[in-house]
């Protein structure tokens, strides 16, 4: 296996990880920012107030995006397994 092939596989894997994680984390970050602005505007300093909305949005992102997330992961895995003969030879 040449180093270029290894770098390409690693780059694709890291891009997939970034894509899958950001699909779940970005909505939670946006809701956390909105709640933080609301807390700053109303001077509410309750730490647990921001936890529940972020938890709910994260769970909803996982529920609604799970099919897409698994499909992306399966596509990458199938592509990786099917490229084994060309990488070895």
From TrEMBL:
Membrane topology of the entry: Multi-pass membrane protein
Pfam families assigned: Bac_export_3 (PF01313)
Keywords of this entry: Bacterial flagellum, Cell membrane, Cell projection, Cilium, Flagellum, Membrane, Transmembrane, Transmembrane helix
GO cellular component, one term: bacterial-type flagellum basal body
Transmembrane segments: 12-39, 51-70
Domain of life (superkingdom): Bacteria
InterPro entries found in the cross-reference section: Bac_export_3, FliQ
GO biological process: bacterial-type flagellum assembly; protein secretion
Subcellular compartments: Cell membrane; Bacterial flagellum basal body
Family: Belongs to the FliQ/MopD/SpaQ family.
Function recorded in the entry: Role in flagellar biosynthesis.
Protein name as catalogued: Flagellar biosynthetic protein FliQ
Species for this entry: Thalassotalea marina
